Amino acid sequence: MTNWLPDLQQGKGPIYVRLADQIETAIAGGTLPAGAKLPPQRNLAYDLGITIGTVSRAYALVHERGLVSGEVGRGTFVRDTHDAPPEANLDPVTASLVGTRAITPPPGKIRFDSTAAPDVGQGSYLQSHIAAILKDHPADIASYTRSFPDHWFAAGSRWLSKGDWAPAPRDIVPTLGAHAGIMAVITAVTSPGDKVVFEHLTYSQVSRAAGLAGRRTILVESDAGGVLPEDFERVCAQQHPKVAFLMSSAQNPTLASMSLERRQAIVDVARRYSVWLIEDDLYGAMSPEPLPPLAQLGPERTFMVGGLSKSVAAGVRGGWVACPPHFAQRVRIAHKMMTGGMPFLLAELCARLVLSGDAARIRTLCAEEIAAREALAREYLSGFDFVSHAAVPFLWLALPDPWLSGTFKHAALTEGVLIDDEDEFKAGRSEKVLHRARLSFSSPQHRDEVRAGFAIVRRLLENGSAGYDSVA
């Protein structure tokens, strides 16, 4: 127990803020060293002549700053943050936003936790286009983007087209990647406090970003065929959401794809309850199928989002949103407010890649490489239960008993492979436990590294959790 007592006459702002600042100063100066126990709240309140509620708010604030940790029944202790890795020093609010992945991935590991497009020689394509842009548009690159030329919209229309459906160029919004496009839509059609529908397992960074923007997450049930229309209707009737985030094809992480009947049923429910739909087609565009997208079935309420990160180059943060009629301007302004706006070089590069045909050529090369790596997965993981697709850069692995998802992730990390456990994809507080993990295999530089990663995973699956029981 420390005898430290703060001076609340110092500092500015409410008393609880001054108290929190005093605690932070004492920790930084060594007066409250790592491991020191802060005074019990009731005692400190008495000594300072303030309410216990004020002390409680101050302790909560320094806890949010990541400076202390609370242990039920023991008290509040100063954390040792000097030699810990960056993610160990996260305050609780930040930790709730980053998911289960490390902010800075440990070096020397095989990256089975990223679905960026594989390296198939994109550099030569990008070099020629960037050189031409620098030559043709030196003034535009030196300034902010003041106007959007027509070919930027035409490129988005071409890239997002599926089957016999093609969005009108006037309904296209160029974006800083698919994620930025999704958030632009959410902020354009909802207000803080509004509810957004997500599947229990999905691209959860959208739900975290939506929460950061003040939107509330509600969950809908799904199965091997995608979102269940009857549960979607229940959610719409009871919760009154404004928008639903869905993947109709090659859902991440389950790889589920909706049948035509289910797609139509989802659109019908959305119409009845006036719910907007956001259709993320990043992976769906890599697994061509004859089924119409939701944007074709419900064009008046569906925002189709796509980009280049998975099938061309993740380092080129390019994407587009195809909007319902008359909504492109609203989404474009929301995107500018959320991101600061489109840089000319990026938008022009993405347009040239698409309209020249180079993006399609790179996508074909990426698809061939992904197919070869997916074949390696089927070879090395033969006999185990997993879902994969020859054109999609990840698989959804069922873990044999007694493996738990988080335990398997830690065991793989110990053996040199970074994977994603199922908690990484939980959009909210879900009690679903599937005992699965997602393995992504597009990021390793060479196939030999992919083989080595799959060999390690197989060895872990065969050996069970022996030796890893102590890993939480």
Question: What secondary-structure arrangement, pairings included, does this model have?
Answer:
Layout: H1 15-29, H2 41-48, H3 52-64, E1 68-71, E2 75-78, H4 92-98, E3 110-111, H5 122-136, H6 138-141, H7 150-160, E4 172-175, H8 177-189, E5 195-199, H9 204-212, E6 216-220, E7 222-223, E8 226-227, H10 229-239, E9 243-246, H11 260-272, E10 276-280, H12 294-297, E11 302-307, E12 319-322, H13 328-339, H14 344-355, H15 358-380, E13 386-387, E14 394-398, H16 405-414, E15 417-418, E16 420-421, E17 436-440, H17 447-463
Helix pairs in contact: 1-3, 2-3, 5-14, 7-14, 8-9, 8-13, 10-11, 15-17
In short:
By secondary structure, this protein is of the alpha/beta class. It has 17 helices and 17 strands. The strands form 5 sheets. The chain has a 7-stranded mixed sheet, with helices on both faces.
- Alpha carbon gyration radius: 25 Å
Distance between the termini: 30 Å
Q: How much helical structure, as a percent, in the residues?
A: 40-55%
Side-by-side strand order of the widest sheet? 4-12-11-10-9-5-6
Structural class: alpha/beta
